[in-house]
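anyone else get weird line breaks when pasting these?? whatever heres mine. first is seq + tokens for prot A
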Amino acid sequence: MFFLRELEREITLHPSFFGPRTREYLTTRLLEDVEGSCTGQYYIITVLDTVTISEGRVVPGSGVAEYTIQYRAVVWRPFKGETVDAIVSSVNRMGVFADVGPLPVFVSSHLIPTEIKWDPNATPPQYTDNGDQVIEKGTHLRIKLIGTRSDVGSMFAIGSVKEDFLGSVIYGPMMSSLTWTERFDISENSTENGSLYACTEHIADASMLQRGVCLEVSYISEASS
């Protein structure tokens, strides 16, 4: 699920960057450091804007200045029970490895419908029911997350396709590939329910890949988490 969060980060700047473009350098460093990163609880998809940039504090003995930046960012946090679209990265007799954007997901062979069998002799090796259902490298797969694990700077999930409406998915011309979100642009601010709506041309969920689709992004602040 996508959220809009207010976050904070400290950035140090070398004296050679001091001057009229200091704020520009700080913003560039912020984007380079946090966009696409994982905190262990969620992924920071994109930075929308900076809220405040503090005055620089010189670090004794080094000469560099330290700045505290408060910013707003769209983050993605996977939840147990969430249904997501993924691309299969590899398959073996133990199960299927797939990627949901930056999140690696493993689907055990025990969590694949019994009629879909492992066929090591196929080219390439695959899970198949000898009909329409084929799971091989590159297959678009709809998965239900049944558990997530967090490490320092990374996340991992276990998924299942052993329920209705899950498994391999075939898309039309407008939905031929999964593309991770490139940029969110706030188009409407709803004050009634405290939610923000963001529009993008490229969304991680393949079911929303058509242009102009809007996502509802829940708003939570750092203090409320």
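and prot B, same format (seq, then tokens)
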Amino acid sequence: MAQQSYQKFDGSAVTESILQESSQLFNENYGVWSEQAAGLIGKFARAGKLALTGIVCLPKITIGSHIRLSKGKLRAEYLPDDTTCSYVRVTVDGRLAGNAFACRWTYDNKTVCWITQLVVHQEYRERGIAQILLLNLKNADDDICGIMSSHPAACMAAAKAFGSKCIVNTYHSLNPKLNKKLNNLGHIITIKLEFIKDHAEEIMKASPINYVRDANFRGSLFNPEDASGLVSSVDTSFWVDHTLEALVRARELLDWPLGELHRGHEFLLITEVRRRPRSRPQLTSKPKDTSSTQDSA
């Protein structure tokens, strides 16, 4: 059985070698340029998310080529000075299989944990690794979690790791695999759109991350007259070629709350963090057994 190992670092403890591995993981697995990127590369290289996040921009790009991010830009944009940032990674048999970056700041006396990057190697997807990465990234005092992503799977992982507990009713008694998939996806339907509507602007204005702070809101959640099909999105001019198979699969089973996804846009998900309930001591009239046993592996 493959051995998974998760490690968490404060931003200041992330070494150059760790960033080099993270850069390679991103460059090979994050995404590729869309057809629209070729005609707009000059504009958004100067003013869009690419300039703000440090994505490597070339005068001419090849449609379908991998989007690249250098280790220097990773440190400058995802682990900036004078910010509270975290990094978590997972290795499988010593090989980097996924990682996540987050930045924290305060809004209304509450701690915001913003997922700035989440990447899982293509060979290790659909194994729950993204959710476990985020659970390892999560702090006990986090109050709010946010993410901007064009990947539906990233939004679903954040909803499950940070959001409200959801147990989907079992309709398929003869298909336990489908029931498991329903429960894995179901957390996204508990997202409170009103919370995003009421707090997104102020939360994101307080961010020390440029592209989060300067995001342009799009969708019917922010403009009731918007009939584009967008609900909770941001226009980042990030022309990644969307792979929406995960979104199609989710919509076959559940109501997807964040709306459509247009080219150059990303979904916006913000949720209050679910806290684990404290266990209550059990009252008993019998003496407590202080002996302990360990399960054999």
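btw re prot B: Confidence is low (pLDDT under 50) at residues 42-49, 168-174, 278-297. Residues 102 and 277 are 24 Å apart (CA to CA).
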